[in-house]
Structure formats: structure tokens, C-alpha cells
Write a structure and sequence with these properties.
The chain has 258 residues and is α+β, with helices and mostly antiparallel strands. It contains two helices and 14 strands. The strands form three sheets. A seven-stranded antiparallel beta sheet has the order 8-9-10-11-12-13-14, with no helix packed on it. Strands 1, 4, 5, 6 and 7 form a five-stranded antiparallel beta sheet that branches. A two-stranded antiparallel ribbon has the order 2-3. Strand 6 and strand 7 form a beta hairpin. It is globular, with a radius of gyration of 30 Å.
């Protein structure tokens, strides 16, 4: 009988101990931010995260500043287009006055249209840190349903070599890309370069066949497939009158018809 009582007392003590341990708070684990680019050292010392908040705030401040500078050019019910978590804004000197200018894409945000409209805007910077509108092109940007199976065809906008470069990509079973380069000259914006490419199976691999046109000089560099191999072709197609950006329609452009 004494052994049975002793066994019950020991068993109760074990249950009590386990119950207390389960009620103890779990130790907190330090979390690191993958965006900091810092790793925990081998001796388990915590990484120095003292500048993480400043890095994030600088990034947010930059985004806010980029948009605030051009807010007056964005109509109500519109917003700056965002692709790949990046705003479609680029800056650089476009009119060669040594002051930063901006090119950006805006899109309807009020859903008043089945397919939101998109506009390209280019603004020139002034010495007092303000901007003035240079051009608003209402048909220069493909909308979100014009990329085929691949979805939204808009890839990027950038200021490259003093010109505005628009890139689009789309397709279904066959893929394509189209790049348009505009430059400010003669007090207007003109299409000066055009590149288009398609992707074809050559042998066991898929290669990009690309045509590139310098619309100022008429020079052409293209690629054709002969005997299962890609061959480069260079020639001059002759100069043509440059197309003004205000008359440019992205989904209708054909270099051969200009």
C-alpha cells in the first residue's frame, strides 16, 4: 500500500513539472531582414541592423520624392504605372541644358474604363527644381491586354543616351519584343530608333531573331535564318521622315509603312 501511495506522489510530481514547463514563455528568436545583405556571424553574434531603418526610409523617401515632383501632371483618377514593384519613372537630361528631366507612364486608376488607359508624359526640369510639361502622348504605351498570353506587355521606360526608350514584350506560342526610342530635337519629339524581335526554334534551341532600325540614318541590322543558322544582314533602307511622338500609335506602328 505504501508503495502505491509513493508511486502516485511521484507520478503527480512529474505531471506538475511538465505542466509548469509548458507554461513557460518560449524564447524569442531574432529575425534578420533579407534586404539588409548582412549575415549572422559564425559565433552567433547578432548582425548589426542599426542602419536598416535608414535604408528603408531612404528608399521610401526616394519613391515619394519621385512622385511628388510630378504630382501636378497626374490627373485625378490616374497614377504612375508600377511594374515589377518599380514605378515607371526615369530621369536624365533630355534637352541638353544640364538639368534633370523626367519621363514617366501614368495609368487610369478609377476603373472607369474596361481597360485602363495609359499615357506617356515627359517633363523638363527648371533651375528652381520645378518641371514643365514637354509632351503628353496618349497612344504611345500599349495597354495591359495587348501583350497576348504573356499579359501586360509593358516592360520598362528609361532615359538612355539622351533619349527616351520604351520596351514592350508579349506573345503567346510565339513571343515578340518591340523597343521604341524617342529624342527631343527641332523643338519636338521624334521616333529615331526601332527594334523588333521574335523568338524561333532553330535546331534544339530557341533564338531571338531581331531587326534594328536607325531611323535617322536609314541603317538596318537584321537577322535571318538560312540552313538552320542565324545570319546577320546589314543594309541601308533609306532615310525617311521621322515620326512625331504626338502622332505615334504604339499598337499600329510599322516601320515599313513610314
Amino acid at each position: 500500500m505504501k508503495k502505491l501511495v509513493l508511486f502516485i506522489i511521484v507520478l503527480y510530481s512529474v505531471f506538475l513539472t511538465v505542466g509548469c514547463e509548458n507554461k513557460m514563455p518560449m524564447p524569442q528568436v531574432e529575425k534578420s531582414l533579407s534586404t539588409t545583405g548582412k549575415n549572422i556571424t559564425k559565433d552567433n553574434q547578432k548582425p548589426d541592423l542599426s542602419d536598416c531603418s535608414s535604408v528603408e526610409s531612404q528608399s521610401e523617401d526616394k519613391v515619394n520624392s519621385d512622385v511628388q515632383d510630378i504630382e501636378s501632371f497626374i490627373p485625378k483618377g490616374w497614377e504612375v504605372l508600377k511594374k515589377y514593384e518599380k514605378l515607371a519613372i526615369s530621369k536624365g537630361d533630355l534637352n541638353k541644358d544640364g538639368i534633370m528631366d523626367k519621363a514617366f507612364v501614368i495609368e487610369q486608376s478609377n476603373q472607369s474604363e474596361d481597360v485602363p488607359l495609359r499615357n506617356l508624359l515627359i517633363v523638363f526640369g527648371n533651375k528652381n527644381n520645378t518641371y514643365e510639361l514637354s509632351i503628353k502622348a496618349e497612344k504611345a504605351i500599349l495597354n495591359e491586354i495587348e501583350g497576348g498570353t504573356f499579359g501586360d506587355p509593358f516592360e520598362s521606360i528609361s532615359i538612355d543616351r539622351g533619349s527616351v526608350l520604351l520596351k514592350f514584350f508579349g506573345g503567346s506560342s510565339s513571343k515578340w519584343h518591340r523597343y521604341f526610342r524617342f529624342r527631343y530635337q527641332d523643338n519636338g519629339w521624334f521616333l529615331i530608333g526601332f527594334t523588333e524581335g521574335s523568338y524561333e526554334f532553330i535546331g534544339d534551341s530557341m533564338d531571338c531573331i531581331e531587326d534594328d532600325y536607325n531611323l535617322i540614318t536609314g541603317d538596318y541590322i537584321g537577322e535571318i535564318v538560312e540552313d538552320g543558322k542565324v545570319k546577320t544582314v546589314k543594309k541601308n533602307i533609306g532615310k525617311k521622315q521621322l515620326l512625331n511622338l504626338k502622332d505615334f500609335v504604339a499598337n499600329e506602328y510599322d516601320v515599313q509603312s513610314q
